[in-house]
Amino acid sequence: MSDRARSCRPVVPALLLLAFPFAAPATVTAGSPGDRVLVTGWNSSNVLGYDATGSFTGALLTAGNGLSLAHSLTRGPDGFVYVTSFGNDSVLRYDAKTATNLGVFVTSGLGGLNGPSSAAFGPDGRFYVTGNQSGTLQVYNGSTGGSLGTLISGLTGPEAVLFKDDGNLLIVSGPTNTVLEYNTAGVFQGVFVSPGNGLSDPHDGLFGPDGTFYLSGFGAAKVLAYNGVTGVFIEVFVEDDPSTPAVRGNPVTAGPWPGQLSKVSSKVLSGKSRTLPLGPVPEQYQQVE
């Protein structure tokens, strides 16, 4: 993709919060003293760390370490952090506990990857990556990062991939205001979330502890709730209060009742809460127990 094409893609401020322990307990409880919150920076091409109170603890990764336009991050079954590098079509891997750069996991453009926007490990152990600019879902070996081919093509602006409890995968399509469901063979199962109910340019989704599916609406600054089995709309879970200042550059309370969501694509985890000062144009967050 040309530099011009990359520069024309709208900046998508969303956060990806990961709670990691500095020590190594078997279970991490969000809000415990050992939690660490990681935030990716799109414009700044870095990954910053915060403690459970939102205080800055330092950079896990700074610009110039192979990361270009950090778009999202996820934790793998090995405990390492995987960061999608939108600007150079790759996925990088890090040890968050030791702040060690483990190198490139998916090499630039491997398998036709173009504009990686989201990644997730499937229940089958494979590594799934959405190509926002190629309109594809690529699959990689979950241990080596080797290409296993294009699973789905013809997608419109895929922003996120995640898995249901039944093993099917969901693709969040921002431009079409839909969430599409496929099985792991790439066979289309239907539209899981349809347009309407104020949903505008969705960018991310999350299943809450009660099974409810929460979907961010970047275009309208809302988080909407849906039945996690049928995809039927339940309610607007939270929306921006126009009487408050814009979010960018201001502290944001994230989950379960985030206050200001103006131009922020948010994942919400019911029963947890975070307040953190945002850095320059953060990209995505996720909170992991």
Could you explain the architecture of this structure?
With 289 residues, the protein is mainly beta. It has a single domain (3-276), classed as Neuraminidase. It contains 1 helix and 21 strands. The chain has one helix at 3-8; strands at residues 36-41, 46-51, 56-61, 70-75, 81-85, 90-95, 100-106, 116-121, 127-131, 136-140, 147-152, 158-163, 169-173, 178-182, 188-193, 202-207, 213-217, 222-226, 233-239, 252-254, 274-276. Strands 4-5-6-7 form a 4-stranded antiparallel beta sheet, with no helix packed on it. The protein is globular and about 45 Å long. The model is unreliable at 1-34 and 245-289 (pLDDT under 50).
Helices and strands in order, then pairings?
Blueprint: H1 3-8, E1 36-41, E2 46-51, E3 56-61, E4 70-75, E5 81-85, E6 90-95, E7 100-106, E8 116-121, E9 127-131, E10 136-140, E11 147-152, E12 158-163, E13 169-173, E14 178-182, E15 188-193, E16 202-207, E17 213-217, E18 222-226, E19 233-239, E20 252-254, E21 274-276
Antiparallel strand pairs: 1-2, 2-3, 4-5, 5-6, 6-7, 8-9, 9-10, 10-11, 12-13, 13-14, 14-15, 16-17, 17-18, 18-19, 20-21
